[in-house]
Design goal:
Elements: H1 7-11, E1 17-22, H2 27-43, E2 48-53, H3 58-63, E3 71-76, E4 79-85, H4 90-100
Parallel strand pairs: 1-2
Antiparallel strand pairs: 1-3, 3-4
Helix pairs in contact: 2-4
């Protein structure tokens, strides 16, 4: 049985957590999906990657100051460590996450 972890607990973890703010109607978001999958495979359990649909979670996206998609926000120990709006290459993304791992 899988342990359920609250979103707050997840963001406060020692492991870096990358939130991918996305939307189903966003072309660049769809183009980033395979890049994120590849980065996740390469990193394994060194990081957690979470997708958040801004249309389904508009209050949370608003509270995070999300104004465009895709937006990537990296947390570690509850603190925002990095933010990027727009597309990014897999190697760049992997490098940022590994820097904070």
């Amino acid at each position: 049985m899988e342990n359920k972890v609250s979103f707050k607990e997840l963001l406060n973890s020692e492991t870096p957590v990358l939130i991918d703010f996305t939307a189903t109607w966003c072309g660049p978001c769809r183009m980033m999906a395979p890049v994120l999958e590849d980065v996740k495979k390469q990193l394994g359990d060194k990081a957690t990657i979470v997708k958040v649909d801004i249309d389904r979670n508009s209050a949370f996206a608003g509270s995070m100051g999300i104004q465009g998609v895709p937006t990537f926000v990296l947390f570690k120990k509850g603190k925002e460590e990095w933010r990027h709006v727009g597309m990014i290459s897999g190697p760049q993304l992997k490098g940022v996450i590994e820097k904070h791992a």
